[in-house]
Amino acid sequence: QAHRLRVACLVLPFARVAAMAKAGKDGKMPGMPDDADVDEEEDKIDKTGKLGKEGKSGKEGKHAKASKHGKIDKTSKAPGFLTKKRKPKRKESFAVHIYKVLRQIHADIGISKRGMSIMNSFMQDIFDRMATESTKLLRTDKKRTLSSREIETAARLMLPGELSKHAVSEGTKAVTKYTRM
Questions:
Q1: Which of 33, 72, 36 is nearest to 56 (CA)?
Q2: What is the 3-state secondary structure (H, E, C) of the chain?
Q3: Which residues contact 24 (CB under 8 A, 6 or more apart)?
Q4: How many other CB atoms are there within 10 angstroms of residue 133's CB atom?
Q5: Is there a contact between 26 and 89 (Cβ–Cβ < 8 Å)?
Q6: Going by fewer Cβ within 10 Å, which terminus of the chain is more open, N or C?
């Protein structure tokens, strides 16, 4: 009972400050009680220890929503602090890498957004297949560490003919370049 009163007394001033920003010329705040009303509301505690909701119609109480024009940000846990807008989650893609390879092969040719989306889906599909195949190889060998050997074998099994030879040579070149550093 006393705890709820303390919380109500702490939150109310911050709500007033937020509403003062929206207040009109006369200083009256829409939807906010006067000081006398607040004192009366503190006295209205029922038998269960909860604040009474007498005199409040509809959703004017605890769960009231502000209008779109004066919307209060509900993401802040600490009242009175301004909150920053969250950045949208980063979406990983192979777009940069695809573009680099395109520049190496055809420096004067671009790629459309839809074409890049298709290439990105293709790369994700190949990546998933390679990962699944290499984990199958790990399970058959009863190993727990995924190494370049399993990736190379998965590439040889999945990719056809000349493409697998090129993939293996590019992969070994990348691994040797990485190990030198």
A1: 33
A2: CHHHHHHHHHHHHHHHHHHHCCCCCCCCCCCCCCHHHHHHHHHCECCCCCECCCCCCCCCCCCCCCCCCCCCCCCCCCCCCCCCCCCCCCCCCCHHHHHHHHHHHCCCCCCCHHHHHHHHHHHHHHHHHHHHHHHHHHHHHCCCCCCHHHHHHHHHHHCCHHHHHHHHHHHHHHHHHHHHC
A3: 30
A4: 18
A5: no
A6: C
